[in-house]
């Protein structure tokens, strides 16, 4: 097994703590790739990205023009406006709209992996959408699974 | 292999039939955990939850305050109101809005598993959102995959 | 190992290029099944379907009545209308609404597989939702994983 090719299915799970971000949409593709160095050994697989919070969400969208980040945030505000009629309101006017936006976008992504890279389209990037006006850090759980090809020691 | 530790990737798939629920959002985390006892043997993995219906959906959201369940249902009603202009209307005014809400929230969830537990955030719970006013039972397909550590007989 | 049953976890990944489609929702279940013949060997598993574009999306919905396809498209138009106020507008009025709709529905699906078949409910089908008025072909990445039972040569 010295220096030989090894094949098999690997499972790697890591936490990624992201610092507090301002309300809005933020590209995080590079941070995710950096946090999961085992990606490079995966021949074919899937990377799961899960956010352990209910007022921030994950999505994949156009990441060449930063204007899209702002426009999507405006669309979300128009879909779920801050209004005084929510029952759940202790933490402020942005509280319940944040939870609703999180359910509309979703709390996890699953991205194909091939030959050591995320199999994203040319314009696609991974975004964290922060729905709270004053948010804290956000914790992601990254789970990588796939067929690996590696050089064992 | 008697009493020894065994490692490997496991796949378990189970059906979970949920009784008819009233229109609205319902926490179902405990029912899912009970329906998949093999969860406890998974060191690192993913649990997939899929609903085989098109007018009910699954989401993860804030499960400490029951008011969030009601508020999200109101938000969904405001996004997709019952109106007479839908083409697909044989089963009533709640029919097509139910299908639209199902596409907005989605029909499946994928949740990380670690050391035998769902890796949910502190406030996160799994919800079934019933979009029909008079619904029947709903069938879920649970698929668990992951690295297992167990004591074999 | 000649002619014997073999068990194991398989990973298969394929690209599926779909021709340009008119704006709206289109059932694509049959095309996906045809593009992944290895499905038939999977005892229990999951099929991941990922679209590498940011102005078209994937969803699962009612596929018996074609009217649902049109109604959902109308709902999406009502949620994210074409309006002149978007910052991102170089490619036309349908550009930014297309990106927003893609985030609302999502760019991937994960479907359970059992005994060689997609484990969809009776009325469920897989749709591609094209959000651009003049779209090009769309590329999907299909990733199949699961426990296989096969006859080896």
Indicate the low-confidence ranges of chain A by residue numbers: 1-6
Q: State the end-to-end distance of chain A.
A: 7 Å
Q: Find the structural class of chain A using helix and strand composition.
A: alpha+beta
According to DSSP, the number of beta strands of chain A is 8
Alpha plus pi helix count of chain A: 3
Strand content of chain A: 35-45%
Q: What is the residue-mean pLDDT of chain A, rounded to a whole number?
A: 92
Helix content of chain A: 10-25%
CATH architectural category of chain A: Sandwich
Taken from the alpha-carbon principal axes, the silhouette of chain A is elongated
User: What name is given to the CATH topology of chain A?
Assistant: Jelly Rolls
Could you give me the name of the CATH homologous superfamily of chain A?
YjbQ-like
Order of helices and strands of chain A: EEHEEHHEEEE
Summarize the main sheet of chain A: 5 strands, antiparallel
Rg for CA atoms of chain A = 18 Å
Oligomer: homotrimer
Give the class-level CATH name of chain A: Mainly Beta
Please give the domain count of chain A. 1
The interface involving the most residues is between: A-B, 31 and 34 residues
Strand order of the largest sheet of chain A: 1-8-3-5-6
